[in-house]
Design brief:
41% of the residues lie in helices and 21% in strands. By secondary structure, the protein is of the alpha+beta class. The protein has two domains: 147 residues, Beta Polymerase, domain 2, CATH 3.30.460; 35 residues.
Length: 190
């Protein structure tokens, strides 16, 4: 899926191969989600350069994560948790940033992307591609912080349950019984 986000008050829209793109309306952000070859080609045409493929974004070498040349920043994140839950699988996430255009290439849904797209839809008149990139990174951090806060709360509840007196005393009696059985001690001897 290829979504266009424009620099004027035009609402974002999905690209479709049968619809002619308005060349007078320049996008500031192209968001590719599980892109097809056609969508990738269209985005490359607008970018005026190649986009990384999934294998390139997934590369774990440090040298392949961040590159800058000719006013273009390329950032690859090989392990991104798109679903913001403990059940989500890691997928790669790539960015290509120029002074006029941000292109994101991702392989999973993300609340951060969804929230940002909804908040800026039709209101990008004062935002450059760099502004959108910064807002997107902030949204990713905010969603991650919310997830960490929820996990912390769950851990606190679990810790309280495990180490509460009632559970501990019950566990202590089981340990005592097991020790007695292992040592072959009769309860009458205790």
């Amino acid at each position: 899926m290829l979504t266009f986000h424009f620099s004027n008050t035009t609402k974002s829209h999905l690209w479709h191969p049968d619809v002619i793109t308005d060349t007078n309306n320049t996008p500031v952000w192209l968001d590719l989600l599980n892109p097809t070859d056609e969508e990738r080609s269209q985005a490359e045409l607008i970018l005026g350069g190649k986009l990384p493929v999934r294998e390139q974004i997934s590369a774990i070498e440090l040298s392949s994560r961040l590159k800058s040349a000719n006013d273009t920043l390329r950032l690859n994140i090989p392990a991104f948790v798109p679903a913001e839950s403990s059940q989500g699988s890691l997928t790669p996430l790539g960015f290509v940033l120029t002074p006029n255009l941000l292109v994101s290439v991702r392989y999973g849904e993300s609340l951060a992307f969804k929230h940002l797209a909804e908040s800026i839809d039709g209101d990008l008149s004062n935002n450059s591609s760099i502004d959108i990139f910064i807002e997107l990174i902030e949204a990713i951090v905010n969603v991650a912080a919310d997830s960490m806060e929820a996990v912390g709360s769950e851990l606190s509840t679990l810790s309280s349950t495990i180490f509460s007196n009632a559970v501990f005393c019950h566990a202590e009696s089981h340990v005592f019984l097991i020790v007695a059985l292992v040592l072959n001690v009769e309860f009458a001897d205790i």
